[in-house]
Amino acid sequence: MASLVRHAIGRMASNASSTSSSSRSRKSSSSWGRRRPRDSLEKIRERKDSVPHVSCQPLPQIRNFSVQDSDGTDDDEQTLSLPVLRPPINRNVVCERYPKGKASLLVFLLNVIVIYAYGAAITGIVDIFQKENNEANGKKLPIDNTSLHFIKLLFEYCISRISFPVTGFIADVYIGRWRMIYLSLFLLLTGYVIIAVGFTVEGQSSVDTPLLLKNFINGIGFLFLCVGGGAFEATIIPFGVDQLQGASSAEISSYFYSFYFSRNLGMGSGLVVSAILSYAGNTLIDIQEIPKELEQLYRVVQPLVTTVTLTVGLILMICFHHWFFKNTLWENPVKLIARVLCYAATVKRHLPVRNRAFRYGEERKRRIELAKMTYDGKFPDEKVEDVKAFCRILLILLTLTPAMFSINGFDVLLSQETNQTLVKLYNSSYVETDLFQNLYWGVNITAILFTLPVVNFLVIPCFPKLTIRSRIGIGCVLYCIAGLCLVVIHAAPLVNGSQNSEVSGTQLAFVLIPALIIAVAEVLTTVSVLEFIYAQSPESMKGLLTGLYFLFFGLSSIPATALYYLFKDTKENRVLLAFHAVFTILMVVGTVFYVVAAALHRNRQRHDEDSLQERLIIENQLHSTITA
């Protein structure tokens, strides 16, 4: 009897234990359902898609963790391996945590060297050309020198800017960004050597070199300079971002501000050197009897200094080439864009009608969707989305083109031809307007160098909701405000009844106020546009879109120059007012177009191989957990 009782009690205990284990398993399954780790990871991936994409990023690390019961105890039988995203990297210690940080610093140094040699240092060489042409024509001041101004405009703003998208496309598709930077340095070095050799041969020869032959030799050197400079500027931006493998979005955003800081630092250095040489040249011209060797040294010193500087940059590239990350080649984006657009335009099919209630919330499909394999097309869905992203970014760049007239309008205003107008308009000498020109560029570059750290380290962290498109819009509004300031400055003498243009020299100082506004607007617009292109464009189209932006920026100076010569024959006191009023209206119209395009723009959502592999890992682990 006792044995029967003990047996019954044992069976009751076993049934109770099985019941508790089943209830515990139900609790664990219910707690697993409440946690929804898959939904949280989808949110993480959405945040990851919204930040700029870095090519060749390593797979996320795998870390095991145990699923806990509702009572807080661990269940050793249920373990799940999920990808853990890398935490944000502090931009102050990037060089310590990543060896590739040294490559980024070397890119900044190389940018300073090349921009000094290519950008602002060209001003000193053009000044030498103008002095030689004026001496040959028997003129004392560089006025009515229209042919040389248009030659400079043709080389610097047409050939150089056209080479931007071409070289960016070739670097991404055929030879690689690393080799394109090498090629650009060789082209720049060749151009300066040709100019230096031309000046040296001219000084050593006993017979005066014809003016046409000198301009032809110098033109060949300028051709090499413009093509090499365009190739470097179009390639160095995506090449520098390639060095930040595995970096956070904050670090990549900081790279663009640091890059633009180094660019303006190079321009400022070249401006100081060219101003010193220009002052020395004017001093030599004032001296009646100067040795021929001293005059020859003045002509050779500018090309010689830039040649030595470029040689140092080339040596740095050769010695530290192992620091750099060499990207792979990509498919032809122009061919892909043409094929997708032609297929979408010629296909004789229609998109399916949204005849179900749960599909009414989707956006209206465009005809380009017919090229997707989802709708029986010939191209993968990601390729078609790349083409759509390219078209959206191109629309944004086109709407920004009128807003670029402000900087280019100042460039035309402060050129040698407009200095002649300032001489007549303000009854001042050429020396005063020349000093004002150097003062303007000094104020502009100094303001940019101070604004960049403020925006990077104060404005963006304090206003995290200020998106890239919002920053571009604020910059466009500041451009319009600067244009209105210029209109008011040049309309004030007309309102006061000053028809003889007897304006005091203090009015020149008022022009520095819109110069400061333009500097802030340039930081907000240019840097944000480069960041926007990198964040939204496909990897194979980054060089092409960066080159197109610089192309539009350079070509916008041609209408500005045409507007100046259109109003050149009017009354002198109305020239600058009409000039600034016209392109201010164009800036306002362009800003309105940009606001509309930015409101309709949709960010690119990527589903690359990394995210697909993460999804497969999660689904496999969840499937194995459920079946177990």
From TrEMBL:
Alphabetically ordered keywords of this record: Membrane, Peptide transport, Protein transport, Transmembrane, Transmembrane helix, Transport
Membrane topology: Multi-pass membrane protein
Keyword Transmembrane helix carried by entry: yes
Renumbered residue ranges of the record's region Disordered: 1-56
InterPro entries: MFS_trans_sf (IPR036259), POT_fam (IPR000109)
Keyword Protein transport tagged: yes
SUPFAM superfamilies with a match to the protein in the record: MFS general substrate transporter
GO cellular component: membrane
Biased composition, class Basic and acidic residues, residue ranges: 38-51
TM region positions: 105-129, 149-174, 181-200, 220-241, 261-280, 300-325, 389-407, 439-460, 472-492, 512-535, 547-567, 579-600
Family to which this protein belongs: Belongs to the major facilitator superfamily. Proton-dependent oligopeptide transporter (POT/PTR) (TC 2.A.17) family.
Name of the protein in its database record: Solute carrier family 15 member 4
Annotated organism of origin: Geodia barretti
